[in-house]
Amino acid sequence: MNRYIAFLRGINVGGNTLIKMAELKDALTAAGLAEVRTYIQSGNVIFSSDIGDADKLASSIRSTIRKRFSHKVDVAVFTADEWQRIIAAAPDWWGVDPEWKHNLLITIKPFDMKDVVEAIGELKPDIEAVEAGDGVLYQSLSLKYFGRTNTGRKLVSNPVYKKMTIRNYNTATKLGAMLAE
Question: How far apart are CA 99 and CA 171, in angstroms?
Fold first, then answer.
């Protein structure tokens, strides 16, 4: 069995697309995933499967959620090794400054990283930093000047934003630790 991590986009945000994690765990287990474990309410799922194709797993999870909860949810799936490499490859500045917000923008297939980077536009290096990774963008923003950033304020209004889900530094790294257990 291989270990995977799935990220569900837009569930339990602002009172919309509500899914209880215990019910999600039960539905995914019934759909054939093993050792299903969720973390917090934002749609993070660690599981095992004999299926060796992350795209097929993402499709299966989407289908299960649509059938069981009547929600159309985008899903990104990574192997445990891929996720560990993503966390290990983070730039030195990511997660460091306590005066900044640190996120991981997880892209949902299909995507073109060039389009994602172009949507961000020119950075304001004194208040924001972004670096592309393997299917993710490492993002850090000044909390004090968040409203002036391009990667915070401007990105949300761009259509490319609909093809990503965001996890903060603490959640992204905690999930990495959970996968290593």
Answer: 18
